[in-house]
C-alpha cells in the first residue's frame, strides 16, 4: 500500500500539476528540488537492490544511506505523505536494529 501511495503522489504531482502548468513548474525551484530528491532516492534504492542481488549482501554504508537519506530527501521532495515517512521510520528502526545485533554477535 505504501508503494501505491508513493507512486500515486508522484503521478498526481507530475501529471495533474506539472502537465497542466508547465511554465509555472519550469520556473519553480520547488519542482526542481522535488525531482532532484526523487532522483537521488531512486539511485540509492536501486543501488541497494543491485548490490544486494549482485553480491548477496550490502555494505554497511549503503544500508545506512538507504535508511537515513529520507530524513533529508522526503521533506525536500514535498510529495511524501505522513504515512510514507512513518513507514520509513519503522523500516529504519527494524533494519538498523538487526544490523546492530549482527555486529554484536
TrEMBL record:
GO terms for cellular component: endoplasmic reticulum membrane. The chain crosses the membrane at residues 69-90. It is a multi-pass membrane protein. The keyword Glycoprotein does not apply. GO terms for molecular function: very-long-chain (3R)-3-hydroxyacyl-CoA dehydratase activity. The keyword Lyase applies. Pathway: Lipid metabolism; fatty acid biosynthesis. Signal peptide: none annotated. Its EC number is 4.2.1.134. It is found in: Endoplasmic reticulum membrane; Membrane. Keywords: Endoplasmic reticulum, Fatty acid biosynthesis, Fatty acid metabolism, Lipid biosynthesis, Lipid metabolism, Lyase, Membrane, Transmembrane, Transmembrane helix. One of its GO terms (biological process) is very long-chain fatty acid biosynthetic process. It catalyses: a very-long-chain (3R)-3-hydroxyacyl-CoA = a very-long-chain (2E)-enoyl-CoA + H2O. Catalyzes the third of the four reactions of the long-chain fatty acids elongation cycle. This endoplasmic reticulum-bound enzymatic process, allows the addition of two carbons to the chain of long- and very long-chain fatty acids/VLCFAs per cycle. This enzyme catalyzes the dehydration of the 3-hydroxyacyl-CoA intermediate into trans-2,3-enoyl-CoA, within each cycle of fatty acid elongation. Thereby, it participates to the production of VLCFAs of different chain lengths that are involved in multiple biological processes as precursors of membrane lipids and lipid mediators. Belongs to the very long-chain fatty acids dehydratase HACD family. This is Very-long-chain (3R)-3-hydroxyacyl-CoA dehydratase. It comes from Friedmanniomyces endolithicus.
